[in-house]
Specification:
- 40% of the residues lie in helices and 18% in strands.
- It has 248 residues and is of the alpha/beta class.
- The protein has one domain: Rossmann fold (3-Layer(aba) Sandwich), CATH 3.40.50.10320.
- It has a 7-stranded mixed sheet, with helices on both faces.
- It is globular, with a radius of gyration of 17 Å.
- The structure holds zinc ion (ZN).
- The site of zinc ion has 4 residues, from loops.
Amino acid sequence: MTIETILPIPDLSSAKRILCIQPHYDDNDIAAAGILTQLSKNGAELFYLTATDDLKGVVDASLSNEEAAAALKRDQFAAAKIVGVKDQYWCGYPDAGEYNYFDLRRDFLKHIRLLKPDFVFAPDAWLTYEGHRDHVQTGLAAAEAVMFAGLTKIASSDPGVDSAYEGHEIRGIALYFTREPNYIADITSTWEDKIAAVRCYEAQFDAPGMDELVMALDMKSQQVAQGQAFARGEPLKVLHTSALHVGI
Ligand SMILES: [Zn+2]
């Protein structure tokens, strides 16, 4: 008997409601728009939750914070149309700034209890050499919120949501930006959609920066598909909820 027979890799293709938790406004799509577009085309409902306000990376320095926030939303809604995102939510913590980890986790718990996803996407908090604290905190808080969703003694940021919550099954978490994938999603058929979505994020990339990003994604998508029966892939670590703690 192998560990896979005890805790098989959850079957993402059967996902019905997916909550994609990201540190910044473009991370879900840069990492996983290929598989997410495919899942939405298969009928899954997609919800995006963005942890930070993203105001530090806006390239046009002449914009006020209000104008920059509007530009970020415009980009997100344009990309969401391509990927098939049903609804979006924001926590609004300061980009690369000071905020409390447990506040973040409470907000994630609230959205998980409210939306009742059967799968959650988030960045891999255990990515070696990840230097951006927003990514590490978001990944860890998402993993903890997935584990603790059913434990309503651990309060979310909304007592009303907690008291109405009757529990539900989260079948798995898919960690992106990972160096230890156990699943390479075939994104050959949605590659063009992914790049069209990524190109919507104009507020954070000037034209040369965007071309560089697309080139890197192009190379990476082919590199991770080497040895597979398809041309382009996205690497994910897909874990059963029970695999998120103590490793047995
Ligand atoms: Zn990011």
